[in-house]
Design brief:
Blueprint: H1 7-21, H2 42-48, H3 50-54, E1 60-64, E2 74-78, H4 79-85, H5 90-104
Antiparallel strand pairs: 1-2
Length: 105
């Protein structure tokens, strides 16, 4: 967390992102599965691996759209999307997705 932003400010910004999401992934438009919140089980994840993680694909996740050192800007997307996007900017992520589509055609 950035030292110049209070926890309360982060919470407001994340809440605003949730409201803006209208319950959908900002990148794919998929419906977020809010029932998955607080369901993750580390022990099951260790035992079951990828199949368990896939069950949480639609888990709502906070994505940092901006650089972590710059002004905060959050959006909400699925955990799967956020995991795939990782530290890419939105533009880099879209370019990567385009290259995947072109290659797979």
């Amino acid at each position: 967390m950035r030292p110049d932003i209070t926890v309360a400010e982060y919470k407001v910004q994340i809440h605003d992102a949730v409201v803006r999401s209208n319950g959908k992934d900002a990148y794919t438009g998929e419906a977020l599965d809010w029932s998955l919140l607080s369901k993750w089980n580390n022990e099951k994840a260790s035992k079951e691996g990828s199949p368990y993680k896939k069950e949480f694909a639609l888990l709502p996740s906070v994505d940092h759209v901006s650089e972590r050192r710059g002004p905060t800007n959050f959006t909400i997307c699925t955990w799967r999307t956020n995991d795939a996007k990782n530290d890419l900017t939105v533009e880099e992520f879209v370019q990567l997705c385009g290259r995947v589509i072109q290659h797979m055609r």
